[in-house]
Each structure stands twice: as C-alpha cells, then as structure tokens.
Amino acid sequence: MTPAPVIIAIDGRSGAGKTTLAVELAARLRMHHKVSLFHLEDIYPGWNGLAAGIERYVTTVLEPLRRGDAAEWVSWDWEKHYDGRSHVTLPAEIVIVEGVGAAASAARPMLDAVVWVDAPDDDRRHRAMARDGSSYEPFWDSWAAQEDEWLETDDILDHTDVRVLNRADGNAPDDALQALSYLSSLSPVLAPELSARRGLQLKAERIDATPDAADLFQALYAKSANAVWLDSSNTSANRDTVSDAGSPNAAAERSRFSILADDGGSFGQAVTHSSGSTRLSAGCATVETTGPFFRWLDTVWGRKALRAPEGYDCEFTLGWLGYLGYELKRETGGSDVKAGTPDAALLFAGRAVVIDHRDETVWLLAIDAPDAGDWLGLARGAVLSAASAPQSATAPRHPAGDPAVGSSAVALEFSSRDTEDEYKSKITEAQNQIAEGNTYEVCLTTTVTASDPGLDPWESYLALRKRNPAPFASYLRFGDLTVASTSPERFLRITSDGGMRAEPIKGTRARANDPVIDEALRRGLESSLKDRAENIMIVDLLRNDLSHFAVPGSVTVSRLCAVESYATVHQMVSTIDARLRPGAPRAEAVAAAFPAGSMTGAPKISTMDILDGLESGPRGVYSGAIGYFSLNAATDLAVVIRTLVMGPDGDGGRTLSLGVGGAITADSTPQDEYEEIRTKAFGVLSALGAEFPTT
C-alpha cells in the first residue's frame, strides 16, 4: 500500500472542457509529481448510465485510491453496449478524476479539492459535437436531462473549491493551477509550485517623461474591470521645499510617487474578502477559502520575492493593491459587524506604471512572462502619448462645484445617518463613557449618503482631486464598486528593510480665502490644547501598536503636533517611527495596528466596542486603509478618509456614501464637533456640487 494520494476532482457539464483541462493540468503537475488520471466517461454504463456510472466510480475507483490501493475497474464497451475489459488505475502522489459526477456527494468525502468547469450552453454543445461527432448527437438531450436530474439533488456548486469559466483559449490549465495553489488542503503537495513563485524576475524600464497621470490611466486601464491608481495628486508638494510655516515640507515625501495598475497579464489576480470568506480570481479560475483575512495575507505577502531595479527609489516592486475595510477589526479585537461592501478588495499587479513626480521620470515594471514585452511596448507608447498631450485634456467636462459632474444634471441631495441632534446626543453619550472611565477618546463617525443619479465615477474622481489634492489620493475600481479618495493621512508604512512609520492626523480647521484669517486659523490649531491632547493620545496608542512587532527601544516620535495645510483644511500631524523586528510576520504587524487608532480612539479595543453601540451601522471602506503590499515585503497604507464610495445599493440602483467623524474627548463641545464633520465633508461634497445635509 502506498500513502493516500491527493485527489482532485474536475467536474462540470458535458462539453465544458473538463477532459482537456484535466490532461493539461496533469501535464503541468507532472513536472514535480507522479500523477494518475481517471476519466469517468470510461466507466459510464451506456448513454443512460450517469447515476450508475457515478456509483461504479465511487466504489471501484475512488474508494481504493483513497486508501492508497490500486483501483481495478471495468470499462464500458460502447460498441457492444456491455461491460468491456478490466483496467487498473494506480495510486500516485496526485490523482485527478475527471468527468460529470466526479465530485458527486458520495465522492466528496474522499476528495481533497473540487474544480467545477463551466461554459455557455452553446459552446458546450459545439465542443461536444466537434469532439464526438455523430456518436454523441443523438444522445445529447437525454444525457443533459440526466445531468439536470443529478444537479437538482446534489448541491455540488456549494462544495466547489475552484470554479473555471473555460473559454477554450488555452489559459484554463495555468489559471486553475494557480487557483488550486491557494487551497490549504493542497499547499503541502504543491510546495514545488509555490516555491516557483519566489523565482520571479523583474523587467524594468525608465522613461524620462512627465505624463499626465489621468490621461495615462485612461489610456491603459479605462476598460479594465479592476484597476487601481494610487494618485499622489498633491504633486505641488514636490516643487516646494518648505511648508507655509517655513519648515521642511513633510508632505513632499508622501507625494513623490503615483502607481497605476490593473490585474491584467499572466500574473493578474483579484481578491475580495467578506466575513471570513476569501474569493480570489486568477484569469478564468476562481477559488474560495475560509479563514481570517490577515492570515491569508500572510501567505501571499511579507517575503522578499523581487529586487528593485537600480536607481529606482519607490518601495513598490509589483504586488497587491487595494483597500482593507474597517470591519476587518473583527480579526484584531473588534466585534463582528457585516458591511455592505467587501471587507477587503485587492488586485495583484504583475505589471505597473510608477510615476516619480520629483525626478520627472516614469518606471515601467513587469514580471518576466511571455506577454511582458508586448505590455512594455504598449505602456511605453501610452507614457509618451500622455506626456505630449495638452495638460488640460484631463479636466472634467464639468467644472468642480457644478452638480453635473457626471452624466446626470440632477443635483445631489445627501442625507445623514444621524441628524444634527442625534449626532450631538451621541457625543454626549461618548463623553459619559469617558467620565465612567471606559475610554478617554472616542472617534465618533457618521455617514452621509445619496442615490446615484448617474454620476460618472471617473469624472467624479477628477473633480475631487482637482478640488482637494492630497498625497494619498486614490482611485480604485473593483467591478461595479468605485472608491474615490483624497486622503492626506498615512496609516502605516513598512519599508523593505523594516522601517516602520505611522502619521496620524488629529485636529482640523477649515481654510479661509483671506490669507490673514487663514493664518490665524492655522495658528489657532497649532496652539489648541484640546487638539494637541487628541493628537498626543493617538500618538501614545500608535506607539503601543507599533511596539508589538518592533525592535525594543526603536519606537520614537520624530514629529509631534505639526500643522500641515491642504486645499480645504489645516491638519495637525505627528510621526511615529520604529524598526520592525527581524523575522516578524509583516501581515501580523499590519494587523496589530489595524484599524488606525486615529479612527477609533483609545484604548482601541474597548473604544471600538463603544463605537459599535453608538454608531448605527457599519463603516465599510471608510476608516480602513488603502495602499499596496509589495513583492519586496514593503507596504504603504493610507487611512480611508475624505473618500467617496460608489456602488450598488442592493435594489438594482447605485448609492454614494461618504463617512465623516471626529475625536470626542471630555473637553469636546458638541456644536464644535458637529461643525468639524461638516468641515471634513466639504472637500468631497463641494466637488460634487452638493452640500452637507441640514437634517
């Protein structure tokens, strides 16, 4: 008896391409493993024998193979319409069983993975006829009826690990193998395939050019279902060496690079996570796994797989980009709250464009693959075209402030989850919690929403970035969900060599058109004891968050309560630095600081519980993080504030939402706190031609 094999079932309706997929997948796996392959069509007892064939397969083939024994079975003689010769299928390290019913309910307890292959009905019939011709055509309908009868009583799709939409373009085997490698049940046996990921090579090209980033994004990714633009739209910071206050411009470092990418190409993938379930798409294959998101992130990020090219200063060397939603707090000490949007959405970019605004250069990055050369040529042409185009070409068709930002001229009317009186009442309750000693700072938030009258997400974002440029602006598109952010706040950066930095913002003042008044507002924020207290409390919280995975004694505060000025607000910012402990799991280091303390209050866990009681719904994307997880083990994440989320409302329409909030302390005045959330919402709402709701 040999050790029990790993058994992979490839199932699906007739004509979906199961046989070809199984043969090609087996060929790829044979590079590192001994593989046996069994086709159920060899054992069905005639054209009316689906149910009997499944029974024969389970008892004479699957059961002995599961034990590590040879399977002795009798094939069907299709010419004599009776049992034919005896055959033996030997166990191997991996066994692939393929055919209609391969993953039937009686078989599933003996399987390690189930792959369901699908294709449009017309394509399936055409493929089946092309393969078997006239022998199959008379029986197509009767066989399809047997498949229908079986599927009505067998919930196989609910027990499928990987789904493949087979377009017969040759991509299914590689996509399926990539998806299978994410299953924990297969990871031990697929160790050679997983190790191959670490042998990636990076192709890089530098171009001396200053393309318009918006033009470039549209040229490359306008038709991409999933695309990300980490947009340092506050690029003027790179031209200024000092801030308004005369100190070195700390925003310049945060505004140097923009990253543009989608999930196209050989290595492209996209993943969403909701309430403990992770769904990953790799080309035509989709795999679902269960478990904590940060544990999944640790399996795909945190080890150095690619080196940066010579002369390249950005920490992003391809990898995962997207957002982490606030409700991931369930994994970091918070309670479980279900959101209407995915708790996380990331794409894997195997190729990307990075704009260096300071050095006025563009870097094209691509993992070496058969399609890398063609993409580099396409991207090079797009960069040069965007660099020569008039800069005004990316201006929205409607100026910022005009309600007709998108394709509809209907004025937007936002409503708030909390009325003014309700929000002020919650402020009072938060102060009661502080007085009781349950917390000492509560970052209370609310959400304003509007029905989407047909805004164009792209033009809406262009209006936002024009109205309120920010170092961590971003435009994320994941199918029908769009996130348009103009965030100024860094959540957490971990460099490839282990440097850690958090830069919380606490303290906000609206800017004034009159320079004298504006300067008075800035100085008022700078000298505010209340705002400094808010900021310092969060600094203490983040010092603790970073210390969990930091080298002892390395946590320092290099900047405390500095004031930075943006288009619509003055903000009070601090900087906490640390050194990551060698060998520490980087995904866990991110989790230890998530969600950002500036969005919860302190102490974090007990305050999140208080917030769940005060706030009337999930925060979703808002209060989470946006950024990248690079293949050189670096990450840079911004706090999701000043962010418009555009997505389905669940009833066939679309909705717009904007989260706003502020830190409540014992010294807070309800009216001032309410005016602060109006100030924070102004930059986004004014760009849409909308106003903060009055009720």
Layout of secondary structure:
Elements: E1 6-12, H1 18-29, E2 35-39, H2 50-67, E3 71-77, E4 82-89, E5 94-98, E6 113-118, H3 121-132, H4 140-153, E7 162-165, H5 172-180, H6 191-196, E8 202-207, H7 213-221, E9 226-231, H8 251-254, E10 257-262, E11 269-274, E12 277-282, E13 285-290, H9 293-300, E14 319-324, E15 344-349, E16 351-356, E17 361-367, H10 372-388, E18 415-416, H11 420-435, E19 441-451, H12 457-467, E20 472-478, E21 481-487, E22 490-494, E23 499-503, E24 505-510, H13 515-527, H14 529-547, E25 556-565, E26 569-579, H15 586-593, E27 601-602, H16 604-614, E28 625-630, E29 635-639, E30 643-648, E31 654-664, H17 670-687
Parallel strand pairs: 1-5, 1-6, 2-5, 6-7
Antiparallel strand pairs: 3-4, 7-13, 8-17, 9-10, 9-20, 10-16, 11-12, 11-15, 12-13, 14-15, 14-28, 16-17, 18-19, 19-27, 19-31, 20-21, 21-30, 22-23, 22-29, 23-26, 24-26, 25-26, 28-29, 30-31
Task: Report a brief summary of the structure.
The protein is α+β, with helices and mostly antiparallel strands. Helix 1 crosses helix 5 and helix 9 packs antiparallel against helix 15 (586-593).
Task: List the keywords.
single chain; 695 residues; alpha+beta; 17-stranded mixed β-sheet; twelve-stranded antiparallel β-sheet; 17 helices; 29% helix; elongated
What does this structure look like?
With about 700 residues, the chain is an alpha+beta fold. Helices cover about 30% and strands about 30% of the residues. The chain is built from 17 helices and 31 strands. It has a 17-stranded mixed sheet that branches. β11 and β12 (about 275-280) form a beta hairpin. α9 (about 295-300) runs antiparallel to α15 and α11 crosses α17. It is elongated, with a radius of gyration of 28 Å.
